[in-house]
Amino acid sequence: MEILGLSLALLVLFVSFGFMVGVLFGFFGMGGSFLITPTLLLLDYPASVAIGSGLAFYFGTSVIAVLKHYDVGQVDYKLGAILFVVLSIGIELGSRLVFGLEALGIANLVTGIAYVVLLAGIGALFLRRAANLDDEEGAEDDDEDADDEIPAVGQKIQSYTVPPMISLTSGGRASLWTISGAGGSVGLVSGLIGVGGGFIRMPAIYYLIGTPLTAAVGTSLFAGLFSGAFGTFTYGMSGSVDLTVVSLLLVGSALGARIGSAATTMVDEDDVIVYFGIMMVLASAGIALSELANWLGTGALDLVSVLLLVGSSFFVASMILYKVVQSAGADDADDAGAQPATDGGD
Amino acid sequence: MIESVALPAPVQATLLVGVILVQAIILYAGYGVLERVATPLIKTITNA
Fold first, then answer.
1. What ipTM does the predicted assembly reach?
2. A87 forms bridges with which residues in the sheet?
3. Can you tell me whether residue A174 is helix, strand or coil?
4. Are B1 and A233 within 8 A, CB to CB?
5. Residue A171 included in any domain
6. Which residue ranges run through the membrane (chain A) (predicted)?
7. Which residue among A13, A318, A329, B13 is the one 20 to 30 A from A230 at the CA level?
8. B12, B15, B20: best mutation site toward chain A, by most A Cβ within 10 Å?
9. Per-residue pLDDT tens digits for A121-138
């Protein structure tokens, strides 16, 4: 039985996977497109369609994020507009590279390897953060100071005053070359592997351009929204966006993100951060296995790859939902326990 | 992919961006309404 050109199993998979990705990233505050593209690659979608659909999904989630945060944080509109232009140029170059690699027949391999490195890197960062949690609790004040510090490389890049210089809303000034270099590189990565790039765009605006953190978040969101639209347009021009898949993922993700975002008030991020790190490493291993299977010319590892990538996401999202239910249950029990005392007091 | 093959590629791509934009707004608003309606309902059922 097929609905919208997809089997019922795939339809359920996309909506439920979108939901789980929404829960995860509503909770951890990321876009989540970097799980969508590799999943589509594992499901044998061509690299250009997987990347184009990943960017379109990112655009949809950006719209929802902007609607949610429209009154939160400041936006440096001039910097945002310049970033939009350079991000778009980067995305255009990245997409041309993908189509070039596709013509050579190595787009899936290159994208797959890029994701193995990216997901393993993010996983390692989260695992490191989880391992350092105890130390941070012991020396909280010292760590807060250390977190706010701009690294030496960032300070060096911020100190470049190659003209033309652009005045920032915050009062500082940044070289157009620095903005173009930082934005163009992020755009190239976005266009090449189909991620929104918020996890590198925001630090780039903060550490390299020198925008204050509050404005960096809003400006990143603003530039990301328009560059996401441009990425969708670029890949849409060649028919490389599967609207059905994107729509199904968004239906699940929009709901999941609400629940994930609400869960942050009930579940301590530190309790689940280690599982998120493990999930990323498992997802990376899943893609590596898939690439190995393709190289060996066997489909035997395909199921294991999908299970590692999708299964680990389902597991961590389910764990967050379980903790929400557990927390809600405990609150109800507390309310019930407190009720007689209140009545007695009256 | 949008099946409006007769339209030129830039128009199809613009249409695609518009469809995703509208869909995201509808989903955001729709789930917002659902949340407002469902939350008191769930509380009522739980407390009953």
1. 0.84
2. none
3. strand
4. no
5. yes
6. 7-28, 48-67, 79-99, 105-127, 174-199, 205-229, 241-260, 272-289, 301-322
7. A13
8. B20
9. 888 888 887 887 766 555
